[in-house]
Amino acid sequence: MEHILKYTTAVFMGLLLALPVFAQPPSSNSYQLDQYGVLGGNPNEAGNPSSNSYILPESANGGISGEQMNSGTFVVDPGFVIPGFGPVQFTQVITLDQGYRFVSSYIIPENPDMLNVLNDNLNENLDFVRNTEGNLLRKIGSDWVNGIGDWVTTEGYLFKMNDTDELSVTGERIEPTTPITVNFGYQFVSYLPGQPMDAMVAFESVIAENLDFIRNQEGNMIRKIGNEWVNGIGETMPGEFYLFKLLNEDELIYPEALKNEAVAYTGDPVSKPVIKGNAADPVYSIYLILGNNIREGDRIAAFDGDKRVGEIKINSGDWQYNAMPVFSTLESGKGFEAGNDIKLKRKADDLWEELNFDMKSISDAYDAKVYPEGDGVYSVAKISGLKSATVESKLVVSIKPNPAVDEVKIQASSTIKAITLYHQQGAVLERFQGLNSGEFKLNISTYPAGLYITEIRTSKGVVREKLIIQ
Q1: Number of C-alpha atoms within 13 angstroms, CB side, residue 469?
Q2: Please, are residues 276 and 292 in contact by the beta-carbon 8 Å criterion?
Q3: First-to-last C-alpha distance (Å) of the chain
């Protein structure tokens, strides 16, 4: 008996792929999907596309799992073999952005030699590839030297890219629930599912007493603070590995129920790092409790002297989702140095304003105001406001009239970049940015009588003056 599947779309682990039409089985012993979802390459060479059907032997039906998801859609297990064709071949394409990249694949390459897997990437775009043990694939002289050996699908690899490129890995699809032994200490662990999902769900089999933390390539982490596990990663991504630090050996098994369906992350938006570095080297995390003068959308940075070593854009009012990774190795070179003073600043227009902050003693949080030794250290910093600015002696600012009822004129001896009006308790009432003028008229007619603070940022510094509204 034969099953006729009309020209249909198959879901191969989260990728929508089209089955082509074959008048007869091709002579090759493998059935390969290209990036367009075409089996066997050019559909025009595979048969008559207009016939819109493909004869599938009954014996092949065992590779189809679950019920038909909807009209014209079904799910195929990894390792699915079509009689007369051999195992289904998959191609995963991974974008390698410039800088440090955490890379893994759910494909088992036919020839796992690293030089073969990376054959199309052995060019000037690639600096090096490193595995968990620190072994390297890199160019020495005119030769690429493979110090790693074979590509192992359950492991991850750190890529340092000089420029953007693409990695294509072709072979059989690994079973997503394949157990991965995670050893004591640090390990680059591959992400085997074919779709994004909530990181707490993906890694639930190891989120227990053996786990210290899990980190992604942006420096964001899953870690325990007090009695609560905090998901600073949000959602996992295929093509990326995750850095595990374990206190004892454990076993990671991605959830069986998630083989062919995604479980979306539904928590608060995770604040995204702006500064990039090597998250495989030591990273210090600062969780930010926002003060009244900081709000969502602001950019906050950590400085070591004049060097920015971490920066995020605030996406949440909850401090657990405002974790700023601070890097010991930046893409541009060395990051923070242990023992140096920590400075936090907020960006407003093209100026960085220094912030007052206090380190909170929460659980085992580090509470000194100098950069720490080691990896995985975290602090919880409460921002209390802007630090008093040092203003050049030649900078003169005036607010007239003061007290006032309806309007005041603000003038400065240098170009006014922005003006912020604060309530006396620190809440931001209005911001005016991109002014680039020597004066500004501020309408205050809608505000109740009382004391306010006016912050004037100029090309030569920042001044804060009291404003009385009558």
Answers
A1: 20
A2: no
A3: 91
Kindly tell me the burial class for residue 278, based on how many C-beta atoms sit within 10 Å of its own C-beta (0-12, 13-18, 19 or more): buried
Closest CA relative to residue 169, chosen from 96, 92, 116: 92
The three-point CA angle 380-383-389 to 5° equals: 140
For the full predicted model, state whether its pTM sits above 0.85.
Answer: no
Beta strands in 112-202, from DSSP E residues, in sequence order? 126-130, 136-140, 143-146, 157-161, 165-173, 180-182, 185-189
Question: CA torsion sign, 141 to 147 to 151 to 154?
Answer: negative
What is the Cα–Cα distance from 271 to 319, expressed in whole angstroms? 10
| Contact criterion met (CB below 8 Å) for 206 and 244 | yes
Classify residue 5 as exposed, middle or buried by CB count within 10 Å of its CB (0-12, 13-18, 19+): middle
Task: Sort strands 73-76 and 9-12 into parallel, antiparallel or unpaired.
Answer: parallel
Assigned token pair, 193: 């599912």
With 0-12 / 13-18 / 19 or more C-beta atoms within 10 angstroms meaning exposed / middle / buried, residue 230 is: buried
The correct answer on CATH 3.30.70.20 for the domain covering 397-469 is: no
130 alpha-carbon distance from chain centroid: 20
Q: How remote is the C-alpha of 389 from its chain's centroid?
A: 34
Q: Which two tokens stand for residue 432?
A: 């005016």
d(CA 394, CA 421): 23
Which residue ranges make up each domain of the chain? 2-84, 91-173, 180-258, 272-386, 397-469
pLDDT one-digit tens code per residue, 121-144: 999 999 999 999 999 999 999 999
Whole-Å CA distances, 412 to 81, 113, 330, 420, 464: 76, 66, 38, 15, 12
Gap between the Cα atoms of 106 and 39, Å rounded: 19
CA–CA separation, 367 vs 228, rounded Å? 19
Give the whole-angstrom CA distance, residue 330 versus residue 328: 7
- Which positions ≥6 away from 113 have C-beta within 8 Å? 146, 149, 150, 151
pLDDT in tens, 300-358: 999 999 999 999 998 888 898 899 999 999 998 999 999 999 999 988 767 788 899 99
Q: What value, to the nearest 5°, has the Cα angle with vertex 106 and ends 103 and 111?
A: 90
Neighbours of 297 (CB within 10 A): 8
Structure tokens at 3: 């099953």
Q: Are 409 and 316 in contact (CB under 8 A)?
A: no
Take residue 37 and report the two structure tokens written for it. 């979802």
**Residue labelled with tokens 């160019």:** 139
> Parallel, antiparallel, or unpaired: how do β-strands 81-82 and 86-96 relate?
antiparallel
Contact (CB, 8 A) for 31 and 170: no
CA 207 to chain centroid: 20
